[in-house]
Amino acid sequence: MAIAWQTVQDGLFDAVKGAVGSSVAVAWAMSNPSAPMPAKPCAILRLTSRDRAGGSLGQSFDDRQPTAVNGTFVYASHRQHTLSVQVYSSTTIGDLAAGAIIGAIGRYLRLESTVLALRQAGCKLWQAAPAQDLSALLDTRAESRAQCDVTIATLDTTSEAVGWIETADLSQITVGGLN
């Protein structure tokens, strides 16, 4: 079964929204390029994909798996993706500061209930990079901003029916001058 991207994206969105609650807007980056950025505080999500995951995450090649149906092959491989979470806020201190919000997201993603919900959505949290505080002066005010990249894994499978030769007549075959 191919990756159900809408289900994966919905699961990731719900996990981040569950972490921040109703006080922080959550949106996918570039989901509507003509729309303005949500009001602060907000979390902007971007999902980028990589090819097959290597190392301890999965094989560096597609793994062919046996099936009960002769002539059908199933190929499966883990795919690695990066969920980039950017948080913007108008305040640099308190619970609604970008650093506090990104910390809440990180803690929430490690909860067992979130891990199970993400697995049901078709992905698994693999690792999270340390959160970065990117707050800086913007014109005459401080912009509170934080960012974190989270690596997730999905299982991508595909199958093909290539047929199966059950018997072959070898009576007319000559090998080394012998019939």
Mean pLDDT: 83
According to DSSP, the number of beta strands is 8
Shape: elongated
Strand proportion, as a percent range, falls in 35-45%
Backbone structural class: alpha+beta
Approximately how much helix is present in the residues? 10-25%
Poorly predicted segments: 56-61
Distance between the termini: 47 Å
Radius of gyration: 24 Å
Largest sheet: 8 strands, mixed
Q: So how many helices?
A: 3
Order of helices and strands: HEEEEHHEEEE
How would you summarize what this structure contains?
The protein is α+β, with helices and mostly antiparallel strands. It has helices spanning 5-20, 98-109, 112-121; strands at residues 25-28, 42-52, 63-65, 72-89, 124-128, 132-133, 136-138, 141-161. Helix 1 packs across helix 2 and helix 1 packs antiparallel against helix 3 (112-121).
Description:
It is built from 3 helices and 8 strands; from the N terminus they run H-E-E-E-E-H-H-E-E-E-E. The protein is an alpha+beta fold and 179 residues long. Strands 1, 2, 3, 4, 5, 6, 7 and 8 form an 8-stranded mixed sheet that branches. Mean pLDDT is 83; it is low at 56-61.
